């Protein structure tokens, strides 16, 4: 049946989304397995929340109730309630804790992994869907819980292969920032929107530098493409106060830093002074536990979300790579979190202490891939070639596959086996197996079936020999990469071949 090509749907991805290849999926799963192992060693247990929440469960922060789609993907159900794809994994956890408050053991130590969705402008390395892996402690008011989260974040970085010295866990306290806000005359409910704009401006310090932050604190900033970002709208004097704090926060932390900041920037703010005291406690705990080289106090850390109420932290990669043009590139933050004592309380009418950390899995996998450079393709499955396609032969091939899968599993070899199900001939099937990066193929035509044998071809050894083929003698030697064995010896022979290469690439 012919179709009108002009009316066919376009095969295209929505902006800000991406398909993932098998190698990307496997890389992410390997990273997540290592993260999960660290979290569980600290005594955290899994919980899972759905992709969709009621928009009101996301709170006054996300989305704006007057614009339900602002920042999130939202839609109405048949009851005309607004539902949203989750923006992060923290707000759904707060809803879960409030809904199951009487049943959970507190402190509640849990982890979650999953996709989150943000209805924001996509850009290079900035997607609307990405994977996060969170760990949270709910019900512990002491900053000892925050210090522990930072230690666990450091252990996580090393578990996934980031060596000590190539990352840092940076810690600040939002109470300090609130104190600076109060000293600048931006305290109280009437300035909530402005405070959020200020926080998001300061949060761009590592991306745009002090000059860019200055513009975002004032009228706004226009980037190289001509896109304009509205600023916080502060007057020049107030901008200058914040820049004084930023200059102090980005300087080296000497012994007098805390007292100097208290005297010069916080004014009479009790909340700001309380935040400084908590940072001093965290630093003492970190040093006492032996994490002083990996976890650093850094008052320039902000975190953009408004629901943080105390310590905030970021995991930053400090190593550099070079891009295709030879320019140095740093990935920066690959995770972060903080204390959010008010988020659970939105549902219960009273604060509930909570703190947590989120790893941006997608960004972290990209950073690891960039650091390691182009990797060889991982080993693919053993392929059983379909020399005959009658039901009896195909049934025998599937039996071979079942036996080989069991043999590989019994030998502790994590590799699959498949029967070729296409319609191509032998040459195309060999090309298919090669493109799948199969270590070997199993061949049984009618003549082998009559003698109860199979041919097993070692594709990796064959490829190695073939590289040096210059005459018939070498070509005949290449044939030794293929051997004939009895069906009863098939599994053992395949296991022997695979065991030569499992865990290697070519």
From TrEMBL:
GO cellular component, one term: cytoplasm
Cleaved signal peptide residues: none
Pfam families: HGTP_anticodon (PF03129), tRNA-synt_His (PF13393)
Keyword Mitochondrion in record: no
Binding site for L-histidine: 88-90, 118, 132, 136, 303, 307-308
PROSITE patterns reported for this sequence: AA_TRNA_LIGASE_II
Keywords, comma-separated and alphabetical: Aminoacyl-tRNA synthetase, ATP-binding, Cytoplasm, Ligase, Nucleotide-binding, Protein biosynthesis
Localization annotation: Cytoplasm
GO biological process terms, semicolon-separated: histidyl-tRNA aminoacylation
Reaction(s) the record says it catalyses: tRNA(His) + L-histidine + ATP = L-histidyl-tRNA(His) + AMP + diphosphate + H(+)
Domain (Aminoacyl-transfer RNA synthetases class-II family profile): residue spans on this chain: 29-381
Broad enzyme group: ligase
Keyword Aminoacyl-tRNA synthetase: yes
EC number: 6.1.1.21
GO molecular function: ATP binding; histidine-tRNA ligase activity
Family: Belongs to the class-II aminoacyl-tRNA synthetase family.
Subunit: Homodimer.
Identification of the protein by name: Histidine--tRNA ligase
Species assigned in the record: Amorphus orientalis
Lineage start: Bacteria, Pseudomonadati, Pseudomonadota, Alphaproteobacteria, Hyphomicrobiales
Gene assigned in the entry: hisS
């Amino acid at each position: 049946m012919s179709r009108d090509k002009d009316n066919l749907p376009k095969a295209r991805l929505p902006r800000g989304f991406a398909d993932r290849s098998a190698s990307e999926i496997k890389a992410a799963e390997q990273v997540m397995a290592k993260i999960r192992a660290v979290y569980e060693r600290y005594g955290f247990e899994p919980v899972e929340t759905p992709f969709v929440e009621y928009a009101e469960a996301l709170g006054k922060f996300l989305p704006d109730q007057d614009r339900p789609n602002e920042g999130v993907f939202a839609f109405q159900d048949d009851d005309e309630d607004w539902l949203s794809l989750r923006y992060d994994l923290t707000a759904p956890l707060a809803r879960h804790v409030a809904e199951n408050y009487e049943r959970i053991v507190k402190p509640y130590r849990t982890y979650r992994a999953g996709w989150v969705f943000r209805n924001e402008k996509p850009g290079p390395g900035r997607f609307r869907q990405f994977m996060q892996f969170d760990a949270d402690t709910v019900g512990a008011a002491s900053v000892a819980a925050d210090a522990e989260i930072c230690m666990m974040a450091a252990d996580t970085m090393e578990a996934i292969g980031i060596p000590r010295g190539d990352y840092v866990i940076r810690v600040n306290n939002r109470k300090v920032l609130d104190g600076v806000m109060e000293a600048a005359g931006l305290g109280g409910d009437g300035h909530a929107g402005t405070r959020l704009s200020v926080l998001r401006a300061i949060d761009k310090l590592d991306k745009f530098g002090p000059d860019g932050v200055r513009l975002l604190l004032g009228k706004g900033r226009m980037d190289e493409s001509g896109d304009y970002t509205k600023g916080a709208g502060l007057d020049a004097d107030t901008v200058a106060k914040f820049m004084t704090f930023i200059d102090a926060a980005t300087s080296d932390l000497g012994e007098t830093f805390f007292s100097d900041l208290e005297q010069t920037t916080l004014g009479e703010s009790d909340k700001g002074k309380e935040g400084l005291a908590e940072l001093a406690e965290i630093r003492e705990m970190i040093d006492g536990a032996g994490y002083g080289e990996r976890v650093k106090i850094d008052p320039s850390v902000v975190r953009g979300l408004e629901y943080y109420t105390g310590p905030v932290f970021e995991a930053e990669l400090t190593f550099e790579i070079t891009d295709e043009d030879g320019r140095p590139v740093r990935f920066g933050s690959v995770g972060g979190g903080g204390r959010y004592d008010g988020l659970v309380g939105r549902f219960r009418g009273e604060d509930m202490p909570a703190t947590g950390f989120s790893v941006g899995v997608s960004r972290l996998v990209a950073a690891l891939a960039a650091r390691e450079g182009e990797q060889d393709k991982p080993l693919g499955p053993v392929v059983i070639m379909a020399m005959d396609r009658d039901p009896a032969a195909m049934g025998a091939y599937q039996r071979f596959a079942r036996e080989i899968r069991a043999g590989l599993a019994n030998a502790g070899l994590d590799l699959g086996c498949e029967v070729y199900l296409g319609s191509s001939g032998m040459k195309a099937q060999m090309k298919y197996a090669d493109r799948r990066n199969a270590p070997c193929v199993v061949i049984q035509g009618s003549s082998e079936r009559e003698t109860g044998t199979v041919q097993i071809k070692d594709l990796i050894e064959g490829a190695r020999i073939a590289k040096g083929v210059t005459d018939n003698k070498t070509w005949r030697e290449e044939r030794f990469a293929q051997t004939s064995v009895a069906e009863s010896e098939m599994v053992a022979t395949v296991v022997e071949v695979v065991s030569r290469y499992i865990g290697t690439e070519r």
